[in-house]
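note to self: the first set is below, dont mix up w the second
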Amino acid sequence: MRKILLSLGLVLTTLIATAQDPNAPTRETTNDFRGRVEGSFEWEPVKDMTVEAGIQLRLSDDLHSVDRLQSSVGIGYEVNKYFDFGADYILINNYDSAASNWERPRHRLNLNLRGTVKVGRVELSLRERLQTTFRTDSVNRFEKMNPEMVLRSRLMAEYNIRHSRWTPYLLFELNNTLNAPKVVANYKDAVLQCDNFITRYRAGLGAKFHISRYHRLDFYYYFDYDRGYNIDYKGNKGDLKGYVEEVEFRHTFGISYKFKL
């Protein structure tokens, strides 16, 4: 009983200390329904190599506002039936609905590695993506990193239905930040340090519909638990002004069309 009471006291002391920590973040939670519409084409210039380009429109604020318009181009190479790799570039144009204008664009580079194995009629794949995003606006590196680097790990299972044009699938993905700035009391007296934490948990389901050999549709739904930290310092003194953990539950419905040359 004495050990139990000591343990409870230690836990209580820790909670009180956390609550009194001036650098502890406050928390804001939101919910949002989102939408995506995408079109792309794929071309195989040589055997086992593909080139792909596309454009995607994203909606937010319960489908009432344009979130972003992004265009992409990428290349992939299939080493064998178990392994492929590639890279792609994405130009991101974010839309500020409050100001009714497009914000400064961001440039994103992805490096992808994927392993695939078939178990009966189920195809399992694990994709590791190193995502690097470059901002074009000026930021304080103690508030936001530039570039921002994230490791995205996605596990996917596709089921090949016999004599059917439909291919249903399930997926689960984790986003892990690699260089998020650590919060400090005053950034002018501190050394920049990086933090690592999971920024997104994603579960999704969808189905691909093969219209023909050259045309394909993809219908999907994602549920995201998304979180990040909004760090704000006083510009002149460098003191910590605000520190907020922003948590968002996102429901995303999407449709994409692909044309294969």
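second set (the one i keep forgetting abt)
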Amino acid sequence: MKKTITSLAAMLLCFIVLHAQDVIRQQSCSNGTIDQQVDSLKKLYGSQGYVLLKEASMAMESEYEMPVIVPLTQGSWYQFVFIGEYSSRLYEVRMYDWQERQVIFRQKKWGEVDGNVIVYSYVPQFSEFHMMKPVQVNKQKKKNLCGYVMLFKRTAGEGGTGSVAPVTTPSE
């Protein structure tokens, strides 16, 4: 009897430990409004000498950061874009270098011009991985929020070299 109770307790403990380690995994999503914004931004940055390196739609949860890790090359000019659901009230992006120093912080609130879109330029000082952490806050919809991230790199083509002023949105 004592062995049965001990083995049941051990199994219960294992179940609790395994269940407590749930991980939020990146999953794609679709939102018509965001898709239109993505298409417009791709055309805009493409016409200004940027090449799209990475893009991803991602299902998000309100108030939870979704880390995106990207390798960046020293001295290259990058343009980052995060698009959140239009119904969210707050949008933030923080970016960290390999030493976990925050190098970028941007925040927008609902109602601002292009409020659901955060755009920023960045030229890394070192070739290393960087982590971008977008988050959005939505009071009505806690789960299954859609977000979209894009990483563009300035090319020597039509837009010139890296010495041209960065592209900004009207609200910056």
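remember for set 2: The beta strands are 50-60, 68-72, 78-83, 90-96, 102-109, 117-122, 128-137, 145-154.
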